[in-house]
Write a structure and sequence with these properties.
Blueprint lengths: L21 H21 L6 H8 L3 H7 L3 H23 L6 H17 L2 H9 L9 H21 L8 H22 L5 H17 L4
Helix pairs in contact: 1-2, 1-4, 1-6, 2-3, 4-5, 4-7, 5-8, 5-9, 7-8, 8-9
């Protein structure tokens, strides 16, 4: 998951208009994907609306029809990533799954969500500014994100002493985020050893919450 920067930039970070027809939605998706590619390959310094339009194969006017500036496009890229992460945790948290299968799906899904353009997440974490207008989206995202983690904790936690399930969920999600984000920064997301060790870490922690 890419955690949003706390730096404040231009507050005009929202889309100019929402696409309603299939063709316009496809155009917007093409622009967002091109933006992710440019941001990953060229960093914040090389990220311009002209460059994105060129990579997307659209006119700069078409881009500006939906995104007034590069900050609004950056927020759209972040939001798409948030959606991908939430989809992973929703799917992996199926109540019918035993612990190991759930954890393998969670870890594998999180790695997959960061695998495309792995450098993108470094740029979003370390370079791209946040905006005042972007705060409501991360708050809503984090609330649902932690709720899903807490549901997993509650399911496998029979006794954690004085530690609340909300605290366990925050520690667990932070551990997963830390490993995934550092691997994205270092280019080691493809490592099967990393995936195996993260599965062991998460499984062991969930099992270890059943303590006096």
């Amino acid at each position: 998951m890419a955690r949003v920067s706390t730096r404040i930039g231009n507050a005009r970070a929202r889309m100019r208009k929402e696409p309603r027809q299939a063709r316009s939605r496809a155009t917007v998706e093409t622009i967002i994907e091109a933006g992710a590619r440019v941001l990953a390959e060229e960093g914040w310094a090389g990220f311009t609306t002209n460059r994105v339009a060129d990579v997307a194969g659209v006119s700069i006017g078409s881009l500006y029809q939906y995104f007034p500036d590069k900050l609004s496009l950056t927020e759209a890229i972040r939001r798409r990533h948030f959606d991908a992460v939430l989809l992973v945790i929703r799917r992996s948290g199926d109540e019918r799954k035993p612990l190991l299968e759930l954890v393998e799906d969670l870890v594998g899904g999180m790695i997959e969500a960061h695998r495309d353009h792995p450098a993108l997440h470094r740029v979003l974490l370390d370079e791209a500014p946040g905006t005042e207008g972007s705060r409501s989206a991360p708050d809503a995202f984090m609330s649902e994100y932690l709720d899903h983690y807490e549901a997993i904790v509650v399911r496998f936690q029979s006794n954690s002493g004085d530690v609340g399930s909300d605290i366990v969920a925050k520690v667990l999600s932070s551990a997963v985020e830390g490993v995934i984000h550092n691997a994205a920064r270092r280019g080691t997301l493809q490592s099967p050893e990393l995936k195996r060790e993260l599965v062991i870490l998460v499984s062991s922690y969930l099992q270890g919450t059943n303590r006096q």
